[in-house]
Structures are given as structure tokens and as C-alpha cells.
Automatic annotation (TrEMBL):
Presence of the UniProt keyword Transmembrane helix in the record: yes
Organism: Gopherus agassizii (Agassiz's desert tortoise)
Annotated ranges, domain G-protein coupled receptors family 1 profile: 29-275
Origin organism lineage: Eukaryota, Metazoa, Chordata, Craniata, Vertebrata
One GO cellular component term noted in the UniProt record for this chain: membrane
Protein's name in the database: G-protein coupled receptors family 1 profile domain-containing protein
Role this protein plays: Odorant receptor.
GO molecular function, one term: G protein-coupled receptor activity
Keyword field: G-protein coupled receptor, Membrane, Receptor, Transducer, Transmembrane, Transmembrane helix
Membrane topology classification: Multi-pass membrane protein
Amino acid sequence: MLQYKNLEYMVHAILFGMFLFIYTMSLVGNLSMISLIRIETRLHTPIYFFLSNLSFGDITYSSVIAPKALVNFLAERKVICFAECVTQFFFQAFCVNSEALLLAVMAYYRFIAICKSLMYTRIMSRKVCVQLVAASYIYDSINAIVRAGSLFSLSFCGPNIIDHFFCDDLPPIQKLFCSDTHMGDTMHFLLAVIVALSTILVILVSYVSSMVAILRIQSNQGSRKAFSTYASHLMAYGTLFFMYLRPTSSNSSEYDKVVAIFYSFVIPMLNPLIYSLRNKEVKDALRKTIYQKIIPH
């Protein structure tokens, strides 16, 4: 029995170290992107304004989930209070919606920059960009409040044990309710479908139109580079929407855990690489900043 406990503790310690590293890299990558965009004047453009907000959302989401999960990896008694559970649920709903809407806005930006270049300055002004992000945050807040309020106003009957790493709207939380959750499940699904379908439509139309325009005006090498960039972005979109609309079968708790951990820890770490650090402008700005501000002359 003692040997089993030692082995279990060792496994938890390894997981703690692995996820602490991932979380640290996520914070470093996203904070670096926000700082670099603020420091380097060449990056004061709409697309990098959207990217800085995307990085802020990744930091917020992972910071709500990761610290408590890391503590529970090593804790003898793994508990989360009701207020923490509601907070995690709220920010999970807020950040997932925020990322979906920001990705749609970024796709629309690329469409304007490529297909409507003569109207670009007027359409994507600083004021319009701020309004788009503000509208996204306002909608996300309302959506998250409605979802959290409708879920946690139901009656709990115990046992108050969640078979998961954190609180979101997966079956482990729904199993704790005595009330009928059919109406709540339907409302949550409809809200998810509305956001997902609208953003997918904007993304697909924007990217298809942009790629058609690129094929007409660019060389084969330029087209390949553009397609490579779009493919990496669409992979990120696909991961987000797979997480957003995945089936919630009661028999898939272990599967849901893996998907949730991947999205909560790994995606925030990869986003700076996918969206920014593969970009020549960002790499040049990073080299310039390191040379001017870090390396002594």
C-alpha cells in the first residue's frame, strides 16, 4: 500500500513539473508578446492589437485554471470551494467565447487588408478596432454570466465530488444537480452553436476570399507561404471549435479530461508561436528589442 502511494505521488510530482513548465512557458510567451507589441511602434497595427488581446485572454484563462490544478496535483486532499468553481466556470466561458470572436475579427481583418486594401484605413481605424474588441468582451461577459447563473442556480444534492481537474460545463458538474438540467443544457448548447457557427462562417468566408485573391496576385512561393500561415491558423481554429462543440457523453470523462487539459494548458502556450513568432515582423522586432534593451552596448 505504501509503495502504491509512493508511486502515485511520483506520478503526480512528474505531472506537476510538466504542467508547471507548460504554464510558465505560456505566461512567458504571452506576456512577451504583449510587451513586445506595446514597445515596438512597428507593431502598432490592428492585427497586433487583436493579437495582444488574444494573448491577454490566454493568460487569463490559464491563470484561472492552472494554479489550482497544480496545487491539487500534490495536495493530499484535492478540494475546490464553491466560489472558486463558479469563478473558473465563468472565466472558462468568457475566454473561450472571447477567443472565438477575436479569431473571427482577425480573419475579417485579413480579408479587408487583402481584398479591400483601398478601403483598409477607413474600415479598420483604431476606433473601430477598439469597438470590435470592446463589443466582444461585453458579449462574452453577458454570455458567461447567463451560463454561470443558469447553471449554479440549480439545486445540488451531492456527493460534491467533481471527476475533473477544474470546473466547466462538462458532465462531471451536471451530475451533482438534483434539478432537471434539460433546459439549461439546451440553452448552453444553443449559445455555443450561435457563437461557433457565426464565427466559423466569418472565418471561412474571409479566408477563402483572401486565398483566392492571393492566388491571383502572388507568386507560387508567396502563395505557398500564405497557405502555410492560413493552415496553421485554421488548425488552431479547429482545435478551439472541437473543444467548444465536442460531444458530452457521460462515458467520455477521461477523454474530456485530456481535451480540457490540452486546451487549458497547451493551446495558450502554442498561440504565441502560431500567431506571432512565425511572423517576420515579430521576429525582427524581437531581435531589435533584445539588441537595444537587453544586450549591453
